[in-house]
Specification:
One of its GO terms (biological process) is glycerophospholipid biosynthetic process. One of its GO terms (cellular component) is mitochondrion. The two termini are about 20 Å apart. Helix 1 packs parallel to helix 11, helix 5 packs across helix 6 and helix 6 crosses helix 8. With about 400 residues, the protein is an alpha/beta fold. The strands form four sheets. It has a six-stranded parallel sheet, with helices on both faces. A five-stranded parallel sheet has the order 7-6-8-9-12, with helices on both faces. Among the domains are: about 80 residues, no CATH class; about 200 residues, 3-Layer(aba) Sandwich (Rossmann fold). The protein is elongated. It contains eleven helices and 15 strands. Bound molecules: SN-glycerol-3-phosphate and magnesium ion (MG).
């Protein structure tokens, strides 16, 4: 089903097409690889498994390294995916490393975000889970790590790790797996208990001397209560969770920067209706902040992730370098232009994928599918209208290849 819009004018009609695939709601839903994803990949690779065109996988999920996600995608899709083809919501946060490598950074989010942050080069990172363990009375209802693993989410949490996907925000274990099971939880014995809390400085951050100055929300937090409480404390205590707002103001402490990796309100797993994403957490936190500070907003709030420009600019660089490595014929273009007939951004979420591609300009072509967040009515979204609207990712690839022939 094509939208009523006519064919687009290709910015560089003799160039090859390139592709940027969203993951959740396009290639997978929860634990299931969608059949159209396998079909689409076949159309883009040779029988020997070589890519015919440049391809990136660009998701607002994360919680694993780009290398690990590439391995997962290779297994799920049966094609060789390299780490250089993967853009996770937090991948553009690498750009902050030159400024923040030595600074104390508080990290929030499920999955293996602490390891991911370290792999990027952030050297002084503290997870909200560790902060809660160090200050047990600060988030008294936080369920772990103070409780035994496996008791915190009740019996609804699937217990079995799976090689199949569950969501882009996982390390390949069950969704919302306990940190202990995922190997990421600090042991309570080394981080104190409710009776004997250990000071935050024991965690390697002398916070009074060098307060946290940046919060990175790298994936959807696993405990919204704990993280909304602790992030509010850090934001209003000017980076020192134990300091009162008044003393922070008196000390003239600089405001803390709050950076979210993903503004998605919704995303699609196998549940019939879309689920809350990190953007919903952000709204909740900022709403509480506003209510408690007479309508104020934290000084520095930034969102990475689609539809913001950072992942699109990174994708352009990666696609160009892939095209060169593949030895494709690339027409001469003016400086600042890209030699592609189109960069087809295939996504299911109009507010993220379609808006992002439409704003990215140049050769970007938004392609909306109906296998995830967008369910109609009608073939296209009225608010964020895609250049092409089709049923699924296999049809999206067909449309792109047809229009560039
Ligand atoms: O948590 C993941 C979600 O917000 C979006 O993932 O792959 O649809 O961009 P994706
Ligand atoms: Mg999606």
């Amino acid at each position: 089903t094509f939208s009523s819009k006519p064919l687009w004018a290709s910015p560089c009609p003799h160039g090859p097409p390139a592709f940027a695939f969203d993951i959740d709601g396009v290639l997978v839903r929860g634990k299931h690889v969608l059949p159209w994803a396998l079909e689409a990949m076949k159309k883009l690779t040779t029988p020997g498994g070589q890519w015919r065109y440049p391809v990136v996988f660009m998701t607002n999920g994360g919680g694993v390294t780009e290398g690990r996600k590439a391995e997962q995608l290779s297994n799920w899709l049966g094609v060789p995916v390299a780490p250089e083809q993967v853009i996770l919501a937090h991948t553009p946060m690498r750009d902050l490393v030159p400024e923040l490598a030595q600074r104390p950074v508080l990290v929030s989010g499920r999955g293996d975000v602490l390891q991911v942050a370290r792999s990027y080069g952030f050297q002084r990172v503290l997870h909200t889970r560790e902060l809660a363990a160090a200050l047990p009375t600060a988030a008294p209802f936080a369920k772990y790590p103070l409780q035994a693993a496996g008791t915190e989410r009740g019996s609804s949490t699937p217990a079995v790790a799976s090689a199949a996907p569950d969501a882009s925000d996982t390390a390949g274990t069950a969704p919302f797996a306990s940190p202990a099971r995922a190997g990421a939880a600090p042991a309570p014995a080394t981080h104190g208990s409710a009776a004997h809390p250990c000071p935050v400085r024991d965690l390697g951050l002398a916070t009074e001397a060098a307060p946290i100055d940046t919060i990175l929300v790298m994936t959807d937090p696993d405990d919204w209560y704990r993280d909304s409480q602790l992030l509010y404390d850090v934001l209003t205590g000017a980076g020192v969770p134990t300091r009162s707002p008044a003393s922070a103001a008196a000390a003239g402490a600089p405001p803390v920067k709050l950076i979210f990796s993903n503004p998605d309100l919704l995303w699609a797993n196998e549940f019939p209706r879309s689920r809350f994403g990190q953007g919903a957490f952000a709204h909740m936190l900022l709403s509480i902040y506003s209510r408690l500070t007479a309508g104020a907003r934290p000084h520095h709030v930034t969102y990475y992730g689609k539809p913001n420009p950072q992942p699109y600019r990174l994708a352009e660089r990666l696609l160009l370098s892939q095209a060169q490595q593949l030895g494709l014929h690339l027409p001469q273009v003016a400086p600042g232009e890209l030699p592609f007939s189109g960069i087809y951004a295939v996504g299911d979420n109009p507010a993220a994928d379609v808006r992002g591609a439409n704003q990215a300009g140049g050769p970007w072509v938004s392609v909306l599918v109906r296998t995830g967040v967008f369910q109609g009515p009608g073939p296209n979204c009225d608010v964020d209208t895609a250049r092409v609207a089709v049923d699924d990712v296999a049809a999206a690839v067909d449309a792109a290849l047809h229009h560039t022939r």
